[in-house]
Amino acid sequence: MALDPTRHADPERWGLVPDAYVRDVFPEEDPVLARAVTAASRGQWRQAADAMKPTWGDWDDRARVTLALAREGARTDEWLNTWRDEQPDRDLAAVDAAAWVLVAKEILGESDEEDHVDGFHRVLRRAERAARHAIHLAPQDPTPWWTLVEVAGGLSFDQARFAEIWHELVSRAPRHRAAHEAALEYWAGQSSDVMLDFAANAGPSLVLRAAFLLEDEDPLIWRTELVADAVDQLLAADELSNDDRGHLVLALYDHNRFAEVIEQFRALGGRADGAPWSRFEDPKGTFLEYRANSCRKAALKI
After folding, report:
1. Residue 166 and residue 172: Cα distance in Å, rounded?
2. Which domain of life is it from (predicted)?
């Protein structure tokens, strides 16, 4: 009897969550941070300060908390201003600098007209000053150096200037994940070859991110030995982030390894909120399209 591929393309038949459960925005899972973000949206800063304090020394966690609070700071700065008035400290400075970067990105995202580009650059220079202030308050903290890595990409710093920032960053946190991801964006604007070299030295997660950034320029990038090795390394890893799984979807899909793509979607559940989905105009729609096509094509191979 002939197989009905349409029937077998139903994601739920493959153990995947229903389409209606897929979302590109999820509530904050960390209860302390969730309360801090909610309080900030209401103009209150003390919960944010409480969320930042225990992150000192765990630089990846500090980046995570800083970014979540900075997102709220980019939306409304009343709580940041009150925090500055009542208890200015190193934690406020780190969040403030990161928030300015997000404000700049929002300006650029509105239009590529000259006035928006000028505004983007102007706000990034404000972010640079804020980051330098944060560095003065907490010389050991890599977080404001991460902000400067973001600024370097947006303002197209020359490679010598970037190298100085990068040296300061890695001397404080050699494996800082968020900073490596930001550095990849910087190198994407400089040289694809250098970016790939940087990614290869940083590990398989960065290699797949680099491939995604380069796929428009080089559609065969997913078929390179460098990417294939990175895929194998990630598939053998004990734990993967949702961002890693998202990039694995694209790599495995390009190699027609649809059953393995479905495994990654199964692990992702309804999470269309991370990379690479957030880089698409319609994150949820792109997620669902890849998922449905993978199920359909896997069914054809049965």
Report:
1. 10
2. Bacteria
